[in-house]
Give the backbone structure.
Amino acid sequence: MAKKYVGQRMTRTEDPRLLTGQALFVDDVDLPDMLHAAFLRSDYAHARLRSIDVSAARSRPGVVAVYTAEDMGDAWRPGPPLVSPPPTVEDIVFHSRTQVPLVKDKVRLAGEPLAVVIAESRYIAEDALEDILVDLEPLGAVVDLEKALEPDAPLVHDDLDSNLAAHLIQEKGDYAVAREKADLVIRRRILIDRGTAAAMENRGIVAHWDEKNQQLTLWDTTQAPIPIRNGLAGMFGLSTHQVRVIAPFVGGGFGPKIMMFYPEEVVLTWATLKLGRPIKWIEDRRENFFATNQERGQVHDAELALTRDGRILGLRDDFIHDTGAYDPYGLTVPLNTQCHALGPYEIPNYYGELKVVFTNRPIVSPLRGAGRSQGVFVIERLLDLAAKELGIDPVEIRKRNLLSPDVFPYDNKIIDQAFVPLVYDSGNYRPVLEKAAAMIDYDRFLNEEQPRLRTEGRHVGIGIVSFIETTGIGPYEGARVTVETSGRINVATGVGTQGQGHFTSFAQIAADQLGVSPRDVHLVTGDTSQFHWGTGTFASRGAVVAGNAIHAAATTVRDKVLKLASKVLETPEEELELDDGQVRVADIPQRSISLGELAVRANPLRGAVEPGTEPGLEATAYFGPKYGATASGAHAMIIEVDPETMMVEIKRYVLVEDCGTVINPLIVEGQLHGGVALGIGNSYYEQLMYDENGQLLNASFADYLVPTASEVPRVEIAHLETPSPLNPLGSKGVGEGGCIPVPALFAQALEDALADYDIEILEAPMSPNKLFELLQGKEKEQ
Amino acid sequence: MSDQFTVTVTVNGTQYERTVEPRLLLSDFLRHDLGLTGTHVGCEHGVCGACTIVFDGEPVRSCLMFAVQADGHQILTVEGLGTPENLHPLQEAFWEAHGVQCGFCTPGFLMSLVPFLEGNPYPTEEEIREAISGNLCRCTGYQHIVEAVQLAAVKMRT
Amino acid sequence: MKVEGEYVFNGPREEVWELVRDPEVLATALPGTQSLNQVSENEYQGKMHVRVGPVAGVFSGRVVVSDEVQPESYTLTVEGRGSPGFAKGTGQVQLTDQGDGTTLMKYEGEVQIGGKVASVGQRLLDTASKSMIRQGLEALNKALQARVAQSEGQEEVEYNLPSEAKFAAAVAKDMAGEMLSSSRMIWMAVAVIIVIVIVAVIWMSRGGG
């Protein structure tokens, strides 16, 4: 019988090339006659551009061209909005303002590009940047979220009355009534601030317009090659078939590389069309801190209404969301925040007023978690504080509120980022929480270990949080599966890959259907010439959506194989089996034909293709889920704090994850480890520090602290599975689950470790400095 | 226009002679002048470690050196460690333990680890974590990398 | 961002006031100053090459002098821009006769910094600028002492102003020695401002007669 590959801990097919430095990343692309671009960026966060003089730069030897907004003429226009406002919400205010390729009249964020230099080398291009004379008239910068809404705040967009980018209210039930009935109302102000993805590979583009062939080829570190192709073709009057976008190996995406049409993508395309030579731009690390999108800034005024035995009656969450200088990504991130504040809990009444503000800071678009982390932080903090006041254990209070397994599909009634009411497809949250508690020996730690350690004067604490994560959303992805005459299987799909192991996990899916080894399945992702329908890699959807499309296409190919083999072997289909690259008659293994041979027969040199059939053994299929599948999890950790130095050590970290059917546990573990590491960064080490003028003060790894192997602990993982009814594989996404609950977990554990100081942590990220300040404000109580 | 210098350097056992500007970074020299693109550039300020190479037997950030400083020296890059058909035990171990996700930081880790394992064939987990604390990885959370190093140490001893 | 400090000069206040108005002395006290021109009654423009760690480039500065009370105090408003970034600030400078032949200079101001120097230089700025200020003021003090000795008929005191390279080396040495600094004060901006300020004052004094 054919082996089952889905579910196996397979090592990855793509690794040997990555391990030996043979994998192509964008900066490895080297074309004859290639030029190099460098961008002049504004130092000021908010300024009027009075004049720009590039003449000196143009005359520098080695400089081929210098362009400003004026040079772009009619080609200059703000980018298209990527996500329109939800059509299903009444009384919504939404102002769409999108990024521009080069500044024309006003700078709205520090780092916004003013001009581009194109030269024989990057070194010369950067030299020429210093030749450019810019006259910028600084304006007051809008940085603080609340000050942004004050009547006398400077306007980020002069054509609007205020800095309000969007305003909407979502509700279910009647929160006011719930509040009246409550025995306890916990109300807090919660602050969450920005971090950046800091993928190890910065962004990069090579744009090549081949005048003779009338072909545009773009190598781009994008997570969305197909929409980029379509958009650029439209912008520059080309047919989509003239444009090929390749996302080769990409050194980490994490969200910001899904942003479309970064100024550099537009400018480089325009420039190569003008110059007829390939142009390369590689972002340097400092640029990445301004020029690549970021996320997480919000200010919440939230309150939780409960009964005295800890049952939630209602949640109210009013918050301001920072979208940065432009809002091309619409309301995706804050809608996620709203939805994830409901969590895995039964919350019958909800009221949430969301305001989105423009600020003079880099654009906000999804970053691993995409707003979910903030919502989880709010609900978990409020629950923890309620637990403290009511004298209920944190695990217990959660258990009392978790949705029971018989309510699915569960309609949360408020709409999510896909503009449909948030529905949880399946789940069983209590066992997930209980397993996490058991893995970390929760009770024994609280009752035995912690008291003992405390008598030794040590500050050790435990935390445990639970959450859900919406994943695998539409609209759709597609795949084409082909059996080659060599017997190899080709799978092409539109999503890109930034390290998630698609080359292997997708191969496992196809291999299962066709009875081959996954090593004989060759994957192509991220090349629009190979597959050109789809959206991209985001929202933990690659394996779910593309994976299911591959499954569907492979199943169709399997059917074709059986049909043809049945004819060739003169045996009914039911008696045939696929294994080891062969189609065999069960019980008579000598009667067989290889897939390769079958593929030859499926494409005869003589003889017509019959009506209703197609040549070869190939199929294309698409998959679009009804709505996103909901994964869930619980994380727990034990942390020790030194109240003198504020340094922390994570003693133990466990997590339980339910992502439905697991395709490759090795890869899933890797995703969870990486997510936790990012979560730890977002909890205690990473924060983008802006001053009141919108200046970023820590634009380097020396000052923006990405966790190293010394900060990230071993993570113990357990899986539970509630398959998703929304797709044939039963899978749910898992790419973001590692990082989403970590800041909430950190806060709980730190508070517990420092229980004798009785602090409340209402901010993320925390830091040694902030913790120090919190402790300073408190009397130590023994 | 700046002066040009001739640099003679041995990389992965092959001697190269090139004429370069004094300000050309060693990382750019290896990647673009010699076409050895396995060494990656992540930050250009010496923190992330993606550009790590072995320079006269020591792990060194190639983004913090100039090509002219390499004149007369020996360099080992990831291309000299193994090929897809013939992996070094360290590369094999990374493969088996799933220590690679996007692969961008990987060459830097490998080149930091080659001298480390030569000097410490029986490393503890703590020693391993400290040895790699100068290399940033945003994908793996380091756990599988640590396991890969433990596995590699065993492989390299036998 | 608040910026403040003080320094004791070995000389009487009137001499200090004169000295800090002597353009030749000041222009060379902090190597890297490339030019200084009086643009109007109270306004000066100058250019200065600045290096803080990996960030280097030319700052173009503009200074406006106001609220002068000779020989006690004055206010300076400074704006500098260049490839390393920008700086903008206002400062008050006070000179007090300490009665023992020394003069206490106190400076206090607010400065805003942006651009490359602010985003990657925070930790370097502290030490680098403190070092630059210290050396600049020391050089001024040496010049002052030489002048005082000369006016008192003593042997001509030889003093050599540091070359730009030596100066930068000294800054780097100080930086290496003070790796743990994490103060939030942007001292480099102070150095730039103070020097441009001082140079400006000299020219003003020259121009104003």
